[in-house]
Amino acid sequence: MDLNAVRLLVRVAETRSFTRAAGDLRLTQSGLSRAISRLEQQLGVRLLQRNTRSVSLTPDGKLLVERAAPLLAELAQTESLLLDRRDSPTGLLKISTPSLFGRKVVMPLIGRLTEQYPDLSIEAVMTDRLVDIVDEGFDAILRTGEIQDQRLIARPLAPLRWVTVASPAYLARHGTPRTVEELQQHNCLTVRNLRSGRLVDWQFMLDGKVRDVSVPSRLIFDIGDALVDGVLGGFGIAQLMNFAVEDALADGRLVPILQAFSGRSRALSLVYPPSRQYSPKLKVFADALNTVSW
């Protein structure tokens, strides 16, 4: 059996279109059709039902795709694993990271890695969008919260911790809140969750428990990066991750407030498919993450 022709058949089945499959595979439609016709002749069965508008699998075609697709995926993973088992990291490492964490923490780290390993290239997608690690071809992603997908490996990293801050200029104009309740008299800069559409609550340690608190806001953003710019501009109070404002706290551009009530944190993991577990390029990235603090 021609495994390459089977691979082409699987792609046609996934896209349900000769046009899309041919484009994905960088083949002509006629070349793709001929390859599958030869496979049908070799097996002595019809695999596809074709008409002018769509293409669908016959019962025999469905059986072949259901049995062959997992085997082809396993072969591809094995090939990738063997190629990655080189002593020195080479090739492209594609990662995704939350936008603000990417700019502040990951950017300096990957810059050093590309200097240290001349044969390593890194594509970093810095976005707060929830990416699909498999469908979008990522080697690894940095993700917060609990990882539900049992098919993936989640390597825990140091948790992210939050601090509530304001600029000295804002506090001079509006005063410094001493309790969480006093935030209701202040302008609090907030973000809207891209997935739920809800404003993200703040969290404080109250009565021995971390509790969600809804704060008033006249400035709402879609990404955490804008919160940093807004609080530095003196527009209000913000609750941000430590790494995002570490420099500004150190040089006095921002001041921590309500520290007695701090307690918000969130798990952070490096997530990757099992096929990438022994990849040298992923290993150097994971090791580098463990050398920095946030």
From TrEMBL:
SUPFAM superfamilies: Periplasmic binding protein-like II (SSF53850), Winged helix' DNA-binding domain (SSF46785). The keyword Methyltransferase does not apply. The keyword Metal-binding does not apply. It holds the Pfam family LysR_substrate. Signal peptide: none annotated. Keywords: DNA-binding, Transcription, Transcription regulation. Gene3D superfamilies: 3.40.190.290, Winged helix-like DNA-binding domain superfamily/Winged helix DNA-binding domain. InterPro entries: LysR-type_TF_proteobact-type, LysR_HTH_N, LysR_subst-bd, WH-like_DNA-bd_sf, WH_DNA-bd_sf. PROSITE patterns: HTH_LYSR. One of its GO terms (biological process) is DNA-templated transcription. GO terms for molecular function: DNA-binding transcription factor activity; sequence-specific DNA binding. Residues 1-58 form the HTH lysR-type domain. Belongs to the LysR transcriptional regulatory family. This is HTH-type transcriptional regulator YcaN. It comes from Pseudomonas chlororaphis. The gene is ycaN2.
